[in-house]
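Query form — protein RWP-RK domain-containing protein

QUESTION: What is the three-dimensional structure of this chain?
INPUT:
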Amino acid sequence: MINKCLYKFFASTLFTYALPMQISKWSLHLLMIMIMIMIICVDQSDGYNATAAKADVGIILDLNQTVGKILKTCISMAIDDFYSKQSFNTMIVPHFRDASNSSAAAASAAIDLLKNTQVMAIFGPQRSIQADFVIDIGDLVRVPIISQSTSPLLSPTESPHFVRASWCSSSQAKAIAAIVKNFGWREVVVVYEDTTYGSGLMPFLSEGLMQINALVSYQSIVSPSAEDDRILQELYKMKTMQTRVFVVHMLPYLATRFFKMAKEAEMMREGYAWIIADVLTSLLHYVDSETIEAMQGVLGVKAYVPRSEEVRRFSKRWRKRFDRENPEMERTELDVVGLWAYDTVTVLAEAVEHVGVASPRFSKPVEGWNLTDLEAIGTSNSDPSFIHLIRNCKFKGLSGDFNISNGQLQPSAFEIVSVYGRGECTVGFWSERNGISKELKCDDEVQEKGNLGGILWPGATSTVPKGWEIPTSGKKLRVGVPVKKGFTEFIKVERNQENKAVKATGFCIDVFEEVMKSMPYAVQFEYIPFETIDGQSGGNYNDLVYQIFAEEYDAVVGDVTIVANRSNFVDFTFPYTESGVAIVVPIKDQDRKKNAWIFMKPLTTSLWLTIGAFFVFTGFVIWVLEHRVNKHFQGQVMQQVGMIFWFSFSTLVFAHRERVKSNLTRFVLIVWVFVVLVLTSSYTANLTSMLTLQQLQPKVNEVNDLVKNGEYVGYQEGSFVSGFLMDSMKFDSSKFRIYSSLEDYDDALSKGSRDGEVGAVVDELPYIRLFLSKYCHKYTMIWPTYRTSGFGFGSPLLPDVSRQILKLKEDDKMLVITRKWLGEEEGCNSSDGAVIASESLTLDSFRGLFLIAGLSSSSALVVYLCVFMYDNRCILTSTCSFKKKICDLGRVFCKEKGRDLLSTAADSRGRGERGVAQSQEGMFSQDDGFSTTEPATPMHDNHIELVQIDQHSLRLFSLFLLNSSLLFPPNLRKKPTTPPSTPTPRGVAASTGAATLPEMADSTVVFPFQPQDQNDFNLDDDDLLDTEDLFSDPVIWQVCNDITGNLPPLNPAFLQPLAQYNCACCQILREITHTNGINLKRLEIHGVFGIITHALLGIYDCGSSLQTQDSQMFDFHKESTVAVKNFLLEYYEICRREGYSPMQDPLSTFYEALSVGFNQPDNTPHFLQFAPDITGDYQSEQLNEAGGSMKIPLAMQRERTRNLGINDFVEYFHLPIEEAARKLNICPTVMKKICRKNGVLRWPYRKIKSVERKISKSEKAIEESAGEEKAKALEELQQYKIQLNNIYAEFTK
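ANSWER: The structure tokens for RWP-RK domain-containing protein are given below.
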């Protein structure tokens, strides 16, 4: 069709202008054909297909309206854009019809399109009233009717050929309800136009408001044809109501008039809130500026459309085309309705392309005489899937997510806007998934949920309207109140005698009126007394509550208790008082029975016993911790037992004077003093209470006692307690008494059941509290308290009243009201009545305190025992009997600084303790028991090990004696003629009496050690050692063999009493140390090199390292080496029999250095090998010359070490100093001494090793790298080598 038009245009043009130019006719036709070919090529490049099947589509719009013109342009652009993308087999041909704002015109246009044009589908009409009839026509002829009408009354579910291409207006109901809820409004007034469009929203809006506990207090219906006066009259009517929140659902034509009238009625000022529906909000840009000025501060909701770049580009194109097609119109904005129309036409075009165009398009009915115009049209022959494709589709369009499901376009999010200035501003968003939010991302992600932006409300204020005001007229709430004589503190009703006005006062009335003031809306009410004609009470509280059910009252206020049977007739609010039913009984005054044992009553017997047990236990723990280190906790047995009790009990008055030394003791005392402080404070407080406070006890302690004793019980008139007494407490109804005031309660309880009154009163807690506040010195409340629901109001405004009661109870206002009517309970220390006598404190009150004390003491004791056992582990690991281990541990524990605290008592009992006696009795005591045959050494395999150790230590010491004699010439080894006469050295006690060594029993030979040539020797005192070959000297073998053979008795002449001897010039040559796990024996050999002058023996405690006895001195300056040897042999044997084992000699390293270089024979045991194997060059040469058996004399070895210098060590710098010493065959100590002598304070092994590692890394880096990295590594390698050479050069310069 487009090509034909172009052909005619070019033909007329060419004939008009070409004929005067005398161009031939055939040339003109040829030129026209070429032009047509070009046009066809252009059309093909734009996507148009000249052979495409034409699909006629009818479009019914109000073309005289702005919205209709916008839709026409959007539909035309949608068709052009769709077919310009590519070539299709079909093409929509639009047929526009004007509905002229008339339903009849819209129906006539639809019939014309179906009958004459035979369209496949109809888009429109716009308005719901127009679309209603057209939809019925579409269902009849089976042609899809696609309309943007929003009325919920038009249902796609009921009309299978109806497709709603816009959001249904019912979808905005939840968004409007969310706004009402967000600002806490509880009532709204809905104003809507009297049309199908207007009334369709009401059911959904009412339901949405009910879900948030809000009400539609009034519905205002405005006719579209109403005059301004009628609208103004309706506004004045709404102004007289208390609600100030209005929801307006109108089309723009009526809304402009309405808001102008609202401003005239002064309803657009501060305190009012207005909300408009989505259609009006979406079309605000069509409203004139005067109406916008009147609508300042109005909130509205409308469909949210994402502002994408595609929408902005389309808006520019649409603007150009719309202005070109409608040059007479003012500037108009594109809205969401136009975008929905664009996307709908796109869906329609795709559906047409999918199903094609049927031929013939309609099936005609059989011709008859009575056919109407609609029947004559027939039915559409379009594929049945055509309507399904339109009613169910989903894609991303200009309007966002365009989703039509079951013929209905599904809503997504609403935009909340506020009318401000000349237009609108966005203040938030709402979606069904996320609710109200301040911002909304493209993927509906919520930002700041529950908040809205700043809103300027009507009257140019930022204060949120509270939603209600006190109305000038309205119905008042009828509130029923009880009439009663007593308990006027809760409620009191009076009438004015002049005007008969009702005045209600009391605690319940103040609470109710305070709640009403806090309501989110104004509530007018009036009090109506529940009374008879003569002014008496109209019945009990059950009857009063029933009046609400009988619609006599709207609410009930008073001291009405919430119980189950009453809730059957009325809904109660949340209780505003404490709940419960309690019992009040008289008290009996007891005289204080002050007896001699009153001081024992503050604590129970179990608590007294527990305290005593903890005193003893704590004293025992402190004694254990301090016994070994504190003299105050030592002495005789009875003295120590007395200290256990004295020390712990003295902490009661903090009178203990003994100073503790152990940190564990201090820890125990800190906890115990705190426990004592708490106990004494609690005891003092309770005793004071018993002696000073009034001792008051109830006459009845339990409810069962009232029943058993047949006591009468009183309760308040009209209360539900009577049924409670019979059902829950099992009282006989004949025992009930009814009273109506507090004074009646007091009088009845004072007289008691014997005088015809009551022994107890049962009532609810609020009344009991009030009663006890006045008579707390005479009565008290007994337990249990039976739970009830408390006082409540019966009100139709249940949710709001309950909410305000909760707020009131959390506020200080409830406390103020309570103090005003129920008092402060002055003069009463307890709200339950009289103070009951102070009871004895029980063990449960201090269970945690004793637990702390017990754990602290026990833990300290466990820690001490663990340390003690560890220090004496040698006793525990020995093979002795369990009894002997316990005895040994006890003996160790009983010693302080090594002193036997029980020695005197033990000697008197003849226990035969073994040990070393005091210095006055010589070195060994006669009580040591050498005449007995009891073995003192460990049994089993350990026996061999200990014998080996003894032999090892003895032989080492023998070698020391021999080696020390070689250090000086023979003339220096002569014994001195006379000892020097100088004072005894400090710390050494001289012997005062002679002591003889006991005879030693024979011992089994375990390690017989013989030289290669076994001989018997008899050594005299003048025998000297061979200085050339030590190991061939007979003295060594004699020493080694005599330890395992029979030892002759020794006549120790050197043990005679000594004169004072000066030890200042001698040195300690050797220390021989033995231990049995308890004590430690240390024998020090004194003298100068080559001469042994004397020996000192000391006995020490293993745990404290303190000396237990004075030292003993043995004089050797007149004795020969053989005599000293015999003394040492016998000393070792005595130590072995006593169970002592030798320990390492601290001077062994020094003497090892002196013995270095000796070559022992192959059969020398390991414990006699003093020096390492000879591996040096010098020693190797000597060995080679001698055939491997050459022995290097000591003098030669000393000479070698004396000649060594630092240069001899250079080649060994790269080795650790121990390994270097082994290579040189010298002692590391000697090597260090030589280094220090030459100024080398630090062996350079670590320094050299560090540089060598760096050299190795650099060499590896050279192999793996190239270029600059390799050059850098070479440079570093060179620096490291120079650094290594400098280290060696530093010691060789």
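ADDITIONAL NOTE: The chain has a mean pLDDT of 76.
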